[in-house]
Amino acid sequence: MTTPSNYYYTKDHEWIHIESENLAKVGITYFAQSELGDLVFVDIPKVGTSISKGKAFCVVESTKAASDVYAPINAEVCETNASLTDKPELVNQSPYDSGWICKIKNYEKNDITTLMTAEQYDTYLHGKK
């Protein structure tokens, strides 16, 4: 299991990757998708939706259960990964690349500092085992 070092993480196993000055991608971690099992549906948020840190903004369904995906920070959804509609398994196959859920904008840069770095997230994961 790899934890990309240039991403930030939540205790609920979401990640955020800063792409440019006011644009970031959001998804779930390798750990999260492995715990869920094979995904069969992703309820993608609508473009323009305001998301609030710690609040559910998406649901992923696997053969085991449905799970909420929580916003890592306050922001606005500006793009969604339409590929997940027909291929939710992309989250399992490539959670950090082709399995991203949405792109966000209009967030406070300081909010990123409240998230875990890859090293902190790895330590958090190992403490849970």
Characterization of this structure:
The chain is of the alpha+beta class and about 130 residues long. It has a single domain, classed as Beta Barrel (OB fold (Dihydrolipoamide Acetyltransferase, E2P)). It has helices spanning about 30-35, 85, 90-95, 120-129, and strands at about 10, 15-20, 25-30, 40-45, 50, 55-60, 65-70, 75-80, 100-105. The strands form two sheets. A six-stranded antiparallel sheet has the order 1-2-3-9-8-5. Strand 2 and strand 3 form a beta hairpin. The radius of gyration is 13 Å and the shape is globular.
Task: Please provide a brief summary of the model.
By secondary structure, this protein is α+β, with helices and mostly antiparallel strands.
